[in-house]
Amino acid sequence: MKKNVAYIILFGCILVFIAVADLWKEEKHFSESENRILAQKPTFHIKQFIEGNFREEYEEYVSDQFLYRDTWILLKTYADIAFAKKEINGVYLVSSDTLLEKHDVKMLEEKSEEKLEQLKELSKWCDGKYDLSVILVPTADEVYKDKLPKYAPHFDQENFLNEAEQIVGSTHFINVEEILKERKRAYIYYRTDHHWTTLGAFYAYQVWGEKKGVEPLSLDKFTRETISEDFLGTLQSKVNIPMKPDKMEIFIPKVEQKYSIYYDFTDEVESRLYEKKYFNRKDKYSAFLNGNHAFIEIQTENHNGKNVMVVKDSYANCFIPFLTSHYEDIYVVDFRYYRGNLQDLLEEYEVDDILVLYNVVHFIEEFRY
Amino acid sequence: MTFSSLVFLFRFLPFFLLLYFLVPKRMRNLILFLGSLIFYGWGEPLFLIVMLFSACSDYIHGILIDKYAGEENGKRAKMLLISSIVINLVLLGVFKYTGLLPLPIGISFYTFQTMSYTIDVYKKEVKVQKNFLDFSVFVTMFPQLIAGPIVKYKTVEADLKMRNTSADQIAYGIKRLIIGLGKKVLLANNVGMLWEYAYSLNSSERTVLLVWIGAMAYALQIYFDFSGYSDMAIGLGAMLGFHFPENFHYPYIAQSITDFWRRWHISLSSWFKEYVYIPLGGNQKGVKRQLINILIVWTLTGIWHGAGFHFLVWGLWFAVFLMIEKIGFLSILKKVPAIFRFLYTLIIILISWVFFASESLTESIIYIQNMFGMGNTALSNKDTLYQLNNYYVLLIIGMILSTPIVKIVGNYLEKKQQIIYIGLESVGLVCIFFLSVAYIVDASYNPFLYFRF
Question: Could you say which residues from 259 to 298 on chain A have a Cβ atom under 8 Å away from some Cβ of chain B?
Fold first, then answer.
């Protein structure tokens, strides 16, 4: 009897306390960890209520604004760990400070042939007209595949890269897989994000230089500047557990360079390759070339008459700054945002070189030209 | 509203309960009625009309049946009973089987409940309910409104008029509510993903091992989902002072299909037993007639679950084994070791769930063929092992909780080690509650990764 009264008081208090505290709390506009605007309290209209819209909006609002939302998410992640789940929200928990992204292996296997075919067409089309280079960067789960959970599905990127190399020919294919695997002990991928680090991109740049017959700047020609020591990337967002944050660096050539950068065909000129406003924000990777843009034109002070069209995904954003020492004009196109095609662009912007730079997964998911 | 939502747990429930216990006892039915209208109307404002129509119809039918029940030939009372049943079945039929209109949640449950009332008034097993409020509380009361158990009018007749809420009963209700919530949110939803995965693959990508653990995952999902809901309903009912019937009794430890149907969705099978099987003669009119009755009841049970042909096949699948058991297989079963009885039952049940869970009969047949190695060759592969590696803890927990082990240990502890028992129980319940809320909140967690690329 006494025990039962205690139960009633305990759960009555929990229920009422959470309910009242939740009604009372201050509402948030933006969630840092989810990097999105949260739903706000909807206004009641009888018409919308009958149609069910109000209910949906209100439910979304209650859960978006729920008391200690991030803590509940954290609790759920720990429960998943206790259930011995190997993946949580599409992320493998490799160790307490390292996450790897899970990819849709079935989709990758299904689409890889088609993408290789497209690459073949591009390579034929370029033949004689443009000097094509292709860099396909393996993702972290390929480089660290030994750390994946037992039996985890894995897309064989090594094999895919070999096929790609055969298609475009070894003079045009810049294989960065070997160097990244060789340097896997170095800090070449973020632990909490799905991108490679600037150091990873630097190693790829060295291979690019060798292959292209230009002298790449060596490490001592750069000032390495740490722009953030508390970068928690997209993979951490998915599980929301406390983790040791990543460090983010930029490599600035010791010999000063000046740039004129135009985004998305506007006349506004920018002079920085790195956008400072992102240094203190959640999405720090957007600091490189100001995030993703459909089209970017970078003019440098190298009057060498060399220019390049980079067809790319976000992995290129931290790689492109290395190219600025070698070209006069760099055009960057991201076909996920740019609706036109490469052929028309090349009629407008005359170039000698074309560089295709994607990570393997994005390449298979969405390469087009 | 569903029980496993933040709006129910932290908006509706606390304020409803406070109000319910603060008002004088005689006003509790009014509060419960209004609360139930809000609960139902929140999700289905327009379908409130359907529900209230059903309540009014059977309220009036009840009064009229009672009025004419004294007549000598009883013709008018019989016509009125038929009218009540027809109206309910037409409602059910129009919404559920024509596919023209969206399905009002709970309609299969409340039409069956109100039918139990008019039938019992006709049979003079219950007194007519002249108080409209009391009657509509019976029809609309939110705890069992949307997913059962199907409460017969006579079960709650006394509670509707006068009910006491003791601290013991409220505490019991809280426990059942939390346990039910945990079953639904922590177990059913999670283990269900394994079934969804196995079902989503093409025949050639599946392996024998995967389809079996997939079917097991579904068996656990539907059991914890449905019995979790019943637990929550029974718990909420108990908090409000009602005594609802149990709906499940460890169905997966059944030793035969006959036994399984005494343990699975008890309120539905007992409804059919009382209002269809026994009126048709039950087992009193010879074996042949009994087999036909079984066939009828399980055809109806199948159809009750939905319009899909696969539900009918699901019902018939059970009918076949019930009939086989009736004509002698049951006595053979009794002679074999318990493990064989158990395995036979389990395999029949797992196959039945494939019929039940698939979207069409064709899909289910392909899946069942895969279970027996047809259509694919591999017994297992790396991917299957990965799934197993991911889900084995949940599967094991699910299997253990499908048996009475926890209850037996609990009862033992309660007697011998009361302090430990109370400690474990209270800590356990708090953990289950908080973890459930965490999973509910997480379901809407949606990191927006526009900087993903």
Answer: 283, 285-286, 291-292
B5 in A contact zone (CB under 8 Å): yes
Q: What is the rounded distance in angstroms from the CA atom of residue A249 to the CA atom of residue A254?
A: 15
For B11, nearest residue in chain A (alpha carbons): A19
Average of pLDDT values for A297-314?
92
C-alpha to C-alpha distances, B323 to A352, B26, B303, nearest whole angstrom: 81, 50, 19
> Euclidean distance between the first and final Cα of chain B, in Å?
38
How far apart are the C-alpha atoms of B18 and B28, rounded to whole Å?
11
CA B320 to chain centre: 23
- The answer to whether the complex's ipTM is over 0.90 is no
Residues sharing a CB contact under 8 Å with residue B387, sequence separation 6 or more, in sequence order:
B194, B197, B198, B210, B213
In a 3-state reduction of DSSP, which class is residue B359?
A: coil
Write down the pLDDT at residue B448: 56
B271, two tokens: 């409804």
List the single residue in A106, A151, A314 with the smallest CB-CB distance to B382.
Answer: A151
Beta-bridge partners for B338: none
Give the Cα separation of A325 and A257 in Å (integer).
8
CA proximity to B369, closest of B211, B222, B257 = B211
pLDDT at B447: 56
Task: Determine phi and psi for A352, rounding to 5 degrees.
Answer: -100, -40
Q: List the catalytic residues of B.
A: 305
Distance of residue B167 Cα from the nearest chain A Cα, in angstroms: 6
Residue B238: φ, ψ to 5° = -60, -40
Point out the residue among B7, B390, B434 whose CB comes nearest to the CB of A62: B7
Neighbours of A304 (CB within 10 A): 9
Residues of chain A in contact with residue B178, where contact means CB-CB under 8 angstroms, are 11
Q: For B70-128, what is each residue's pLDDT tens digit?
A: 777 788 889 999 999 999 999 988 888 887 778 888 888 999 999 999 999 998 899 99
* C-alpha distances out from residue B202 to A171, B54, B199, B273, Å: 41, 44, 8, 40
Helix (H) or strand (E) holding A92, with range, is strand A91-95
Rounded Cα–Cα distance for residues B311 and B315 (Å): 6
The residue among B434 and B93 whose pLDDT is bigger is B434
SS3 A103: coil
Cβ of A89 within 8 Å of Cβ of B445? The answer is yes
Q: Is A36 helix (H, G, I), strand (E, B) or coil?
A: strand
A294: distance to nearest CA of chain B, Å?
A: 12
**Min distance B59 CA to chain A CA atoms (Å):** 27
Q: Which amino acid is at A275?
A: E
Is A145 an interface residue toward B (CB < 8 Å)?
no
pLDDT in tens, B262-289: 999 999 999 999 999 999 988 888 889 9
Is-contact A328 A78, C-beta < 8 A?
Answer: no
Reading the block at residue A30, the tokens are 């933006």
A31 in helix, strand or coil?
A: strand
Query: Which chain A residues have a beta carbon less than 8 Å from that of B188?
Result: none
Contact A72 B441 (CB under 8 A): yes
Contact criterion met (CB < 8 Å) for A72 and B442: yes
- Identify the three-state secondary structure at position A310: strand
pTM (2 d.p.): 0.88
pLDDT category of residue A1 using cuts at 50, 70 and 90: low
pLDDT band for B445, please (50, 70, 90 cuts). Answer: low
Q: What pLDDT does residue A367 have?
A: 92
Q: What is the predicted pLDDT for the residue at A230? A: 92
Residue B3 tokens read as 């029980």
